[in-house]
Amino acid sequence: MLSTIFGSIITNGTLTLEAFLAATAASLLIGFFVAFLYSRITPASRSFLITLTILPAVVQMVIMLVNGNIGAGVAVAGAFGLVRFRSVAGKGQEITSIFLVMAVGLATGMGYIGIAALFAVIISVVYLMLMKSPFGKGADGERVLKVTVPEGLEFEGMFDDLFAKYTARAEMLEVKTSNMGSLYKLHYSILLRPGVSIREMLDEIRTRNGNLEISCGRPDTKTDEL
Known about the structure:
The chain is of the alpha+beta class and about 230 residues long. It is about 55% helix and about 15% strand. Strands 2-3-1-4 form a 4-stranded antiparallel β-sheet.
């Protein structure tokens, strides 16, 4: 029975109308499933979701047409390469979703509808589990602190006692001048101690920096781009 479910619907290398329609329907359904799941997890544009739905059927058609023709396969690979390098690199989630639907299209193009569906379900479940888990997340108390100080203030070490009081770790990331050199902007990476008040920490800092601008927020990570 498993051989029937996970076997290819294309027998002896001959593509029939029934097999073509079944593979196309499966590609569109699995593509819609992946697109729907992606839209539930992360915000996405309408055009991207439509692309995820249609792309498996497009790849499936290409694989069916190539069907062992080496020359056609090389031409198709070149066309995909041109499309890839003329597009802007997306986030890791987008690239993963595109590769997933392309893999589905490859499987359905070879007639393995059961394998394509099972593979999409397995990857989707693993993806959901990883997104819901703390895997890869930074510490909850990790923040980026930006403090503006006047030019004449000796800022090196002036906040060390406050960092020892409110943070478990503090590291200076960057120092740059502003306002024609009359101000310094200090950037710190800090890890807050559990239960501390950010407001109290900022109040104590602004009594030392002349009540100039201070900001404290989560790190702006852009490492999800490929």
